[in-house]
Amino acid sequence: MDFEYRQQGSSILISWPDGQTNNYPFIWLRDNCQCPACFHPSTHERLLFTADIDPDITALSVTGGADEITLHWDEAGGHESHFTGEWLYHNSTAAPKGGTVRESAVLWTAESLHEIPTFDYMEVAGDEAGMLRWCAALRAFGIARIRDVPRADGTVVAFAEQVGYVHDTIYDRLHNVYSDPNAYNLASTSEELKPHTDMPNYFSPPGVQLLHFIDNEAEGGETTLVDGYACALQLKEEDPAAYEILASTDVGFRLASSKGDIIGQSPLIELNNRGFISTIRYSNQLMLPLLIPGEEVKGFYDAYRTFSRLLNSADNLVKFKTRSGDMIATHNHRVLHGRAEFKPASGARHLQLAYLDFDLVMSRLRQQQVAEIGADWSVERFY
């Protein structure tokens, strides 16, 4: 990748063909030298001890061509660091704008999502290329549907283990969902389930929910899905104060079973340190009483009401009837799921679910890219 560079003080400024200019400080470049003495050639782990770098390190000279650069360092024994344009571009130090989501996320509403990404079971479970297409769809849209999944006990766990491994919770790793008059959870009733994310009470909620519809013949019970990222950004645009409240106020959630009692607190809209939306935690049924000053309560409920209306708006909510043999995967940090009320006496309804980490989905995509262009840190990091 071609670029133009110039030294400015203790940094190198690089201008890219797309018009972007990035600032690369000398200490950052020295810390990320990719030579075998600084990064282990097979493990790709850093050998150089960062704290030993002179904070005032400078380059004696900078040389390079149109698509590479070499820095000759002012340090005992001398050292050279070589970088390609591709590596520097993909590891840009430019801080992105806050309050948004990664470019890999294709935001959607009820109108813009023309079709749910749908795959045949054998296309995904029996073929690595199909599995990668499924991972890419889940990465982009936060949802993916698989049709004609064998309606056998435990199939959802077997599929999760093909992706990577099951994320265990205080529920059974193979969790059965029936309508039960002695229900321990609203999912085991026939009542409407408003859109929600699962396990918001965990410090690290499972990243992917796999929901296998072994039988879904009852009248009603349509599946509902909504893009939490898209709704959060709508909130930010329409009511920035409400967005700020939900992104900064801790909310408690609790879920208990015979295996444990997990309580956690986090904002409903969780941001990373660069201001990107990383996780939506929303479950009206599991929310604990707010532990905030009384004068802040009304503002929170006003913000919560506005966000909830967006999440349940017909403009944002996708509603459809899931067939027996379907498996719905959702990115549980992003997409909220729910269902309409159903009539349990009108037909069989049996679901099995399992969880896995979204990291595993991303890992499959990274491994494929590394296999295609080599084990090199110049590959896109797929945040």
UniProtKB/TrEMBL annotation:
Domain (TauD/TfdA-like) ranges: 118-355
UniProt key word Oxidoreductase: yes
A Gene Ontology molecular function term of the record: dioxygenase activity
Taxonomic superkingdom: Bacteria
Gene3D superfamilies attached to this UniProt entry: 3.30.2020.30, Clavaminate synthase-like (3.60.130.10)
Segments forming domain Gamma-butyrobetaine hydroxylase-like N-terminal: 5-89
Cofactor: Fe(2+)
Pfam families: GBBH-like_N, TauD
CDD domains assigned to the protein according to its UniProt record, in alphabetical order: CAS_like
Keywords, alphabetical: Dioxygenase, Iron, Metal-binding, Oxidoreductase
Signal peptide: none
PANTHER family assigned: GAMMA-BUTYROBETAINE DIOXYGENASE (PTHR10696:SF33), GAMMA-BUTYROBETAINE HYDROXYLASE-RELATED (PTHR10696)
UniProt family annotation: Belongs to the gamma-BBH/TMLD family.
Name by which UniProt lists this protein: TauD/TfdA family dioxygenase
Organism encoding this protein: Sneathiella marina
